[in-house]
Design brief:
This protein is α/β, with parallel strands linked by helices and 313 residues long. It has two domains: 156 residues, HUPs (Rossmann fold, 3-Layer(aba) Sandwich), CATH 3.40.50.620; 120 residues, Beta Barrel (Elongation Factor Tu (Ef-tu), domain 3), CATH 2.40.30.30. It has ten helices and 14 strands. The strands form three sheets. It has a six-stranded parallel beta sheet with strand order 1-4-3-2-5-6, sandwiched between helices. Helix 7 packs antiparallel against helix 8.
Length: 313
């Protein structure tokens, strides 16, 4: 998959017969996204045209909420890897800034979709809006399609247990600690991925050595203590207990993901791992006595082992 950040770098030689395009944040790559991407891939294969996913960095919601942006379900790298795994040809991800904020719906269709991406078939969700003040609608895209030579395919939402699957619904479930509900909406356990980096080795001094994962997020969608399963290591999935928070007992301020792998003693600094959040055990607590914290950590580890023993890897 090719990443394109500026229209000037678009591989126009491969777009002479047009393209199949979809647009969205694609945060979390949930079943609704996957259904939409499936339609894009199918249309791309049928007509022999490259598939393009258009997104923005930062996301519009982050741009308009600088001080309190919504927590991302995925890092940019995770999103890129997921789209590539689905077979998308081009990931067009321009910077969202004032010119894009102020673009009219008509200009977005003509300048971006038609002239920039050479769209011949556009696949969109049933709640899609775009351009200045979200003034652009599906009806407007359809009205312009005949004159500008493209077709529009509207994909319905996916419903799970009576709930419309969306990134917002998943964030709400994660914030409530409802990991089962989040997994049902995602179609899999919620996952964070990152490189194992060196930390302050506080866990080791307490008898709980941890793999510290570089989050690269301004905000986390989950906080607390969790039973987790770690993927990406050479010896297969490993059960673990994890803390994601600011470590209040030690007066921390920056969220950290610390993972204690059970029955494991190997140097994995620099390795890229995937942490699946299976169950939330509790929230963070500030202890006045470190001994109380260590006793609670033992209880958390025992609880995590029991929960994970009852779930499939």
């Amino acid at each position: 998959m090719r990443l394109v950040r500026h229209l000037a770098d678009m591989p126009f030689a491969s777009l002479t017969d047009g393209s199949v395009v979809t647009i969205g944040a694609f945060d979390g790559l949930h079943p609704g996204h996957e259904h939409l991407l499936g339609q894009v891939i199918a249309a791309s294969a049928k007509h022999g045209r490259p598939s393009i996913v258009m997104s923005f960095e930062p996301t519009p919601k982050e741009f308009f909420s600088v001080d309190s942006p919504p927590a991302r379900l995925m890092r940019f790298r995770e999103k890129f890897e997921a789209l590539a795994a689905h077979g998308i040809d081009i990931f067009y991800c321009p910077r969202f800034a004032q010119p894009m904020r102020d673009i009219t719906a008509g200009d977005f269709i003509r300048r971006i979709l038609v002239h920039g991406l050479c769209v011949r078939h556009l696949v969109i969700g049933d709640d899609f809006h775009f351009a200045r003040r979200r003034e652009g609608s599906i009806a407007e895209l359809q009205r312009a399609s005949v004159a500008l030579g493209y077709t529009v395919e509207q994909v319905p939402s996916v419903i799970v247990d009576g709930v419309r699957v969306s990134s917002t619904a998943i964030r709400d479930a994660l914030a409530a600690g409802a990991m089962d509900r989040a997994a049902a909406l995602l179609g899999r356990p919620y996952r964070m991925s990152g490189k194992v980096v060196k930390g302050e080795k506080l866990g080791r001094t307490l008898g709980f050595p941890t793999a510290n994962v570089d989050l690269r997020r301004r905000q986390s969608a989950v906080m607390g203590i969790f039973a987790v399963r770690v993927h990406g290591l050479s010896d297969g999935p490993r059960d673990a207990v994890a803390s994601l928070g600011i470590r209040p007992t030690f007066n921390g301020t920056k969220p950290l993901l610390e993972v204690h792998l059970f029955d494991f003693d190997r140097d994995i600094y620099g390795e890229y791992i995937h942490v699946d959040f299976i169950s939330r055990l509790r929230g963070e607590i500030k202890y006045d006595d470190v001994g109380e914290l260590v006793a609670q950590m033992h209880r958390d580890a025992d609880n995590a082992r029991s929960i994970l023993a009852a779930t499939t890897a």
